Amino acid sequence: MHSIDPEVDTNTGTALEKDGEAAGEERLPALTVVIPARNEQENITALLERLAPALVPLRAEILFVDDSDDDTTAVIECAAVLSPVPVRWIHRSLAERSGGLGSAVLAGASAACSEWVLVMDADLQHPPEAAVRLAATALRHDVDIVIGTRYAGTGSTGEGLAAPGRSLVSSWSNRLVKAAFPRRLATVTDPMSGLFAFRRSTVDLRRMQPRGFKVLLELLLRNPSARVAELAYVFEPRHAGQTKASLRQGATFLRQVVRLRRQRLVGQLRSGTPTGRERLRQAWRMLAFGLVGTTGILVNTGALWGLAHLLGLHNLVAAAFATQASTLWNWALVEVLVYRGRGSGSAAGRGVRFLLMNNALMLLRLPFIALLMRADLGVYSANALTLVALFALRFLLSDRVIYAATGPEGGRDPVQLLVDPAAEATPSAERQQPQTRRRSHYLAYRYDVAGTVTIGSQIRLPELEFFRAGWVDDEDVDIAVRVGDVGPRRPRRRAALTENGSSDKVLRYEEHLGRFGANFSVELGSSIEIVVGPLLARSPHVVYTNIVEALLRYVLVSRGRMLLHSACIELDGTGVMLSAYTDTGKTATVLRLLREHGGRFLSDDMTVVDAEGNAVCFPKPLTISAHTLRAVQADELTRKEWRRLRLQSRLHSKGGRSIALRLARFNLPIMGINALTQMLVPPPKYSVDRLVPCRLGSSTRVEELFIIQRGAPRLADLGFAETVAQMLANTEDAYGFPPYRYLAPALTIAGLDHAELKRREREILEGFLSGVRTRVLASDKFGWADEIPRLVRGEHPAAEAGVTPRQPVVGWPSWRREQPAAAV
Ligand code: GDD
Ligand code: MN
């Protein structure tokens, strides 16, 4: 049953005892809505009436953490009986209530056993509808914390903070914490929201020491790499009853900010230097820092002399001003000579921190200067002495706090994710801003992909050229690609993905350069409208790979086909599929099979398959990577093409791509960089018959699948479940590029959401694979093309061919046709 922690069992209750079915042990809720309540008797019933029914499809439960002295507990008990979702409650005794709202939230979170915990107020200031949207967003997106925000998109404090001064206090305390933690809260607009959700497995609750109201703030600060999304909502007025916020809460809040800031600073200062090499580098930096500091002392002394001697300012006042001058001097030199752009954030931001540090240290120095001067030391010597004395501390603060290096894993994902259901779903700039230059709407290029999906585009999409159709009616276009201005003109500080509207959604991805950069939007309606910015439009490969193909994938799924990451050829009438992780040697193997064994070509990268085991050809131009060059014969390309190919293949290899992925961790306009790179050096793409003379097969029934690997020669059958998992992982791997990660979970196509689309895709794959024999074939000398034709013909793998199975095999294990679990 729904009993929780035995220690608090006496104080807890559940209204589910009689509801045996819903209380089944095996169906754990996916989400627990934790509602802290303190004397909210007039609000509970109204809250549950609006909240509980909407939670049913999300498989959620409700958990009240009740610190009331009025009748709230009894009201919960009554209302729970009528609730269509499980309702539990913890009634805390007076002794347990210290820590207030913060500790209540934690108590609730610790008593939950679901993956997600959502926290909301009991007084209906957080509209239940917004909370449900937030829950759905959390369950769908690949993030760890989702925040209800009043400070982004259509979100607002509305009438909710109408009490005099409340809205000012709220917006100023918001500014205060953002200034105190500029990096950790960089992508967060409402760090003090009381409406939020978090994934229990990715945040560490044991480290929390909540005091007062601001639990989310602490959660964000203590989990610096948790991925965050926000949902815009309007804060409502209290339904009934009194707010528990008070001046005392305000003081607690300020103390908490100071405490968190201090803990973070101590943490940063303690962060040791791990390796000897790093310690050596640090010693170098210290030396350089010292040299800069020495010149700074000269500047400082000069300024002090000018101010005190020439202008006749009081010694200590002069020393204070002199510090500003030398600080600017030191900062400029340190920035350029010692750290050379290390540290996160902007140079100006680091300058401000540097100034703050030196002024704080100056407050420490001034009394000592006065003391030393009493002891008959001259003002210049006293000033210089205190500067030298604090050298080590200054260096440590600079090295570990201001210029702390953030590794690729540290820090938050720099892309802002905002879900804004109330925002109007008008994506295309032309409709929104009539004053912009009118662009033609005409779709000059039309494609009919495998007779299943039609695409119309204003830019030529080389990957789809094979499917160029003579005529596709405007009304029949499933996916349209147009060029336009997406988003506002002004540059942004970081990239953002915004999801506007609720039923017909518009997804907008914007990067730093503003509208003229690599922005794009996707409008999901009865047809899909993609608008790409002018920079992107000039890199059709980027448009296709990062946007169109992701959508094509799911439109195909909605029509019973799957875009499977694999190569496919026909050998002697048998459909043979090849799969491998990127850069293994799949393309080279395909080329050799075509050349040396007269295979027919169907696809090299993505194959369109159905649940009946059929594959349809999808001859995208082949991307030639460094090791694929071997399989291309010298006379097939011109000398100039060869030279270009060498450079291209290096740039567009897996290594090149992983650099791009790493760049994305920093706050860089990754789509823009990608588009520019591809404009300057287009990826090496050649149509297959340009590389090897061959024939095309239009469709085939696939019977054999080889997963090729590098390594000690090996051949082994792979079970059905294993194959499905591998092929799914492998297909996902093909979509690893950043915007996809944010885009995909937001998709709804033909009324199917992302989870449902993925479920169907799996079904199609299971159907497809049920008639396919899968073998893993490892080779250490790119020998796959020699083995595969033999294996397809059913010959025993010859020992002299270098394939030595790990265990001696007496007769190959026969393929047992396992039935897929969810086959139709
Ligand atoms: N269990 C428990 N114990 N619940 C409490 C306690 C407590 O000590 N104090 C307050 N609550 C509950 C209230 O019953 C209500 O459900 C919720 O916490 C918020 O309390 P309010 O008194 O309504 O606070 P507020 O509306 O001023 O503050 C809200 O907005 C702030 C931002 O403007 C909260 O959501 C804050 O977390 C948020 O920072
Ligand atoms: Mn409230």
TrEMBL record:
Q: How does it sit in the membrane?
A: Multi-pass membrane protein
Quick check: keyword Membrane in the entry? yes
Chain spans, region Disordered: 1-22
Question: Which of the seven top EC classes does this enzyme belong to?
Answer: transferase
Q: Cite the InterPro entries for this sequence.
A: Glyco_trans_2-like, Glycosyltransferase_2, GtrA_DPMS_TM, Nucleotide-diphossugar_trans, P-loop_NTPase
Q: Where is each Glycosyltransferase 2-like domain found? A: 32-201
Its subcellular locations are: Membrane
Q: Which residues form the signal peptide?
A: none
Major localisation: membrane
- Which SUPFAM superfamilies does this chain map to? Nucleotide-diphospho-sugar transferases, PEP carboxykinase-like
Q: Which UniProt keywords apply?
A: Glycosyltransferase, Membrane, Transferase, Transmembrane, Transmembrane helix
Q: Which residues cross the membrane?
A: 287-310, 316-339, 351-373
Pfam families membership? Glycos_transf_2, GtrA_DPMS_TM
EC annotation from Swiss-Prot or TrEMBL: 2.4.-.-
In terms of superkingdom, the source organism counts as: Bacteria
Taking every annotated instance into account, which residue ranges of this chain make up the domain GtrA/DPMS transmembrane? 289-402
GO MF term set: glycosyltransferase activity
Similarity section: Belongs to the glycosyltransferase 2 family.
Q: What is this protein called?
A: Glycosyltransferase
According to its UniProt entry, this protein's organism is: Streptacidiphilus monticola
